[in-house]
Amino acid sequence: MSDVLVLRALGLGDACAAVAALRGVRRAWPGARLHLAGPPGPGAWLRGLGVVDEVIPAHGLEPLAWDGRRHVAVNLHGRGPVSHRVLAATRPARLVAFACPDVRVAGHVRGLPAWDEREHEVARWCRLLRAVGGPCGPQDLRLDVDPDAERPGEVLIHPGAAAASRRWPERRWARIAAALVAHGMQVALTGVAGERGLCERVADATGGPAGAVTVLAGGLDVPGLARRVAGARLLVCGDTGVAHVATAVGTPSVLLFGPTAPERWGPAIDPELHTVLWHGDDGAPGDPHGSRTDPVLARIGSAEVVAAAEDLLARPAVTRPAAGRPRTSAPSAPGRPPT
Predict the structure, then answer these.
(1) What's the pLDDT tens digit per position in 271-324?
(2) Which of 144, 173, 229, 333 has its CA 20 to 30 A from that of 187?
(3) For residue 158, which of 247, 74, 253, 52 has the smallest C-alpha distance?
(4) How many CA atoms lie within 13 A of 259 on its CB side?
(5) Are the beta carbons of 310 and 335 closer than 8 angstroms?
(6) Sign of the C-alpha dihedral, residues 151, 217, 198, 302?
């Protein structure tokens, strides 16, 4: 088969979480051209890194613009049935997806694995690809991204998230930024264009000398954000897309989880680099798309986050050899860690 169409029409973090499975697609169909149906921003970034060959712009589960070439379709989007039907409409020679009895595409998904709701997102899609002869695992998440040299060693804070339930209160983000600035750290706030106001309010509430905190929200495309994360000493954020970028490029992070258990969406590699804060119960998940700050997320205190940042900044600095595999060198944190 010369063409493989993969559906993953989700956000930046979802794209990063699918990289290992995308490499499994390469191994299952060596030599085939890999077309990713997904948002243009993350898709173009992955194309530039050689993870995929082509990007078909797709947002959500709208019909796909496929030219009718004979192909294999791979569903890395969801459990079905709607995502299965979107791919089945392209008339693939084969549809690789989790078994879904609600989809009437006889023969396409027969005999494939069952969906496991409690499985880690990375492990889930790797299991699907291994079932069709595409070996892959969490180690395949790594991305080789050149770091931005403009402000090496800065600390990035990403206060936003797509849903309110995953947004920690603004005033607490300001306390974290203030603690870092007070101890000589270069701090920058990242986010999408719609989060610029949020980042500016956090910066204003931080205090300190003018220019102590740089607001980058809305000023970086996906490759630019990835380079900035790759060059950072530390990332502090919630359960959102940029956290997965840090995992992929090997940048240490402090991650604040609320409605979703980190066992399902937390870092799948390099646990020594990432401190995950969560005070929830995996048996009672919240709503990751809710309209109010999740009570589990609200239980995380500012002092706890500062302590986690202090711990990671006090460790040997991370350098990144070829293929993005992290290693450590002598301590070289810029400035004194917060206390």
Answers:
(1) 999 999 999 986 677 899 999 999 999 999 999 999 999 999 998 876 554 444
(2) 144
(3) 253
(4) 18
(5) no
(6) negative
